[in-house]
Fold this sequence. Notes:
This protein is mainly beta. The protein has one helix at 2-10; strands at 31-34, 54-59, 72-74, 78-85, 95-101, 108-116, 119-127.
Amino acid sequence: MVAIGAAVLAGPATGLAQQPQPDPQPGSGVTVQLNDDTAYDLGLVNKYVHGESNVALAQCPGEGLKAPKSTTFSSPVLTVGKYDYGPLIGVPANVSAEVELKKGTAPGSYPLTVNCNGKSYTATFSVPARQVSAVPSGGARAGDGSMAS
């Protein structure tokens, strides 16, 4: 009985969720994406997350492990901030930049483009609708004692 249990535990791991990969750029070796999945949060790749830090990421061949300093991101609905040119641990990228959604952007799908070595590569990311942040008047509030008897 113990040997069977050990064989089952030692077997291959199946049914585990596969993390999505960044948009492929056929034949280029270049990738571009918005955000990256973490061990705690899956489903972040190419999705804007309201109220959180969002990061544009790209893998751009350059000088050793670093992307060329001429590498830039652009999007019609994102403001691009601080760049970091260098490899990231656990993320297929060697350039990243902080991004913020421009005010008034409607939910939908939008392009994120990286200019790498004079060529443009684009991924599509989604902007979800904002979640309601206010509790309706008279609604129960967790932890405030309103439901106590």
